[in-house]
Amino acid sequence: MNTTTLNIKRLIQCREKLGITKQEAAKRMEMSQPAYLRYESGQRIPSIHVIYVMADVLGTSAEYLLGQTDNHNPKRYVVDIEHDSILFEMVKSYKEADNDAKSRLLAYIKKFAE
User: Fold this and answer.
1) By the number of CB atoms within 10 A of the CB, which of 38, 46, 50, 78 ranks highest?
2) Alpha-carbon span 64 to 66, nearest angstrom
3) What is d(CA 88, CA 109) in angstroms, rounded to the nearest whole number?
4) Which residues neighbour 103 within 8 Å (Cβ) at sequence distance 6 or greater?
5) pLDDT in tens, 51-89
6) What residue ranges define each of the domains in the chain, with the CATH number in brackets?
């Protein structure tokens, strides 16, 4: 198995799971619709950078889109200040906190989510 080849079925499934069109997927990935259509149809092979962008937008991992794992959960999240400045500041504050503060914050978030 070529581990750098995009699994097109998984790409389509992830997009459909979000309930977005090909056009919306292209927009969210900040690429042209024709470029996205070529990736989804298998006419073009995306770079690893593009695969990471796809994974971030679709809420999965690059490894899942590459068929390297069956676990669809993301292994990382990218927070862009331009797209979500509040979350960016929260992550920045968390990274600067000590371990005790991080533990308290995580407990608060879990309680808040209940």
Assistant:
1) 46
2) 5
3) 16
4) none
5) 999 999 999 999 999 999 999 888 777 788 888 899 999
6) 8-65 (1.10.260.40), 80-114 (no CATH)
